[in-house]
Design goal:
371 residues, Aminopeptidase, binds zinc ion, metal ion binding, EC 3.4.11.4, metallopeptidase activity
């Protein structure tokens, strides 16, 4: 059997195991027994109890036979919805779903790449230092698996194999994200008989939002309102509106400034109009940023060059498990693995990209060993 058909078969095995976020039990069990078959020491951490998901994170170790730089790779086991009963179809050099579901290449392409690499390391007798693998649960539901991750990984740096874009794309920076919830409270009154006795929460919310900086704030910062809920009959002045919003920035100070601007808009209007507001905010994850002189980026760039591709180093507007690993002191960047149109039923991956993932991982491993 050629290497090509082995990774494709592996990929298909993985995507046909249902693993929508929260329901990672089956794929975790599959992977634990696969690692055992491959002779790789692996275990599941205890984070399922914290996250409430049906599986925790899986940690595996490929012991080194050489002294270099110990590194790690990470991918996530969960998928977005609709991710049950996926029927992969190979057509025109791509793998698609049948159009009724996502494909789940995000992020099973990364997992398939790691598994294929394990085969090839052995077959090609490649020297390497210790390699750790972390397969997370709950990436798609706010990075909860990596957020709860507490294992001590004795590594220098690592890679999340979890970005769209062709192999060669290197996400050297990713933003912090904060989520905010605003409950604006007014006062109800009969809208026809005594509107002056009421305070409209909808009016306050609309005024506050019109004062908020939103959308693209600057090259590093964005903000968005995702939900606005205020409802009642037309003859009553609406007394409550709930707003859910987010802000992101590559720069923590700018993020905090943005959050403050949004809070102030709410406070100013509610105070002026005699209403009240409950504000809740939470930093979901923290930004990371590396330059081309940092080992984690340099190694990835050289690996891409060794494959005959052009390294495209760029920041991302989105977070990934890499954000949490960085926060825990493990320099981690995210790499493009070739999947496209993720989180849609049109999701696909080119066979040629899927086949190249293990080569990318092997080049990184070889470079880490030569350090
Ligand atoms: Zn992903």
């Amino acid at each position: 059997m050629s290497k090509h058909s082995r990774i494709v078969k592996q990929f298909i095995d993985l995507v046909t195991i249902d693993s929508e976020s929260g329901k990672e039990r089956d794929i975790a069990d599959y992977l634990l027994s696969l690692f055992e078959e491959l002779g790789i020491e692996a275990y599941e951490d205890g984070t399922a109890e914290i996250t409430g998901h049906s599986a925790g994170n899986i940690i595996a170790k490929i012991p080194g036979n050489s002294k270099g730089t110990p590194i790690f790779f990470t991918s996530h086991m969960d998928t977005v919805v609709p991710g049950n009963n996926i029927k992969p179809i190979i057509k025109d050099g791509y793998i698609y779903s049948d159009g009724k579901t996502i494909l789940g290449a995000d992020d099973k392409a990364g997992i398939a790449g790691i598994i294929e690499t394990i085969h090839q390391l052995k077959e090609d007798a490649i020297d390497h230092d210790d390699i750790y693998i972390v397969l997370t649960s709950g990436e798609e539901t706010g990075l909860v698996g990596s957020g709860a991750f507490q294992e001590d990984l004795p590594v220098q740096y690592g890679y999340a194999l979890d970005s769209n874009g062709e192999i060669g794309k290197i996400i050297s920076a990713a933003p912090s994200q904060a989520r905010m919830s605003f409950v604006i409270k007014g006062k109800s009154s009969h809208a026809g008989v005594s509107p002056e006795k009421g305070i409209s929460a909808i009016t306050m919310a609309a005024k506050a939002i019109s004062k908020m900086p939103l959308g693209r704030i600057d090259a590093e910062t964005t903000a968005n309102i995702g939900s606005f809920e205020g409802k009642g009959p037309t003859n009553i002045v609406c007394d409550q509106v709930s707003i859910i919003a987010e802000a992101r920035s590559l720069n923590q100070d700018k993020l905090e400034k943005q959050i403050q601007a949004m809070e102030e808009a709410i406070m100013e209007v509610t105070e002026k109009m005699g209403g009240a507001a409950e504000i809740d905010k939470k930093q979901m994850y923290y930004a990371y940023s590396y330059t081309e002189s940092d080992a984690v980026v340099k190694t990835a760039m050289q690996a891409v060059t060794n494959l005959g591709r052009k390294a495209e180093v760029q920041p991302s507007g989105g977070g990934s498990d890499a954000n949490h690993f960085n926060r825990k002191g493990l320099p981690t960047i995210n790499l493009g693995v070739g999947y496209e149109f993720i989180h849609t039923k049109q999701e696909r991956i080119a066979l040629s990209e899927l086949e190249l993932i293990p080569s990318l991982i092997k080049e990184i491993i070889k470079l880490a060993n030569s350090k």
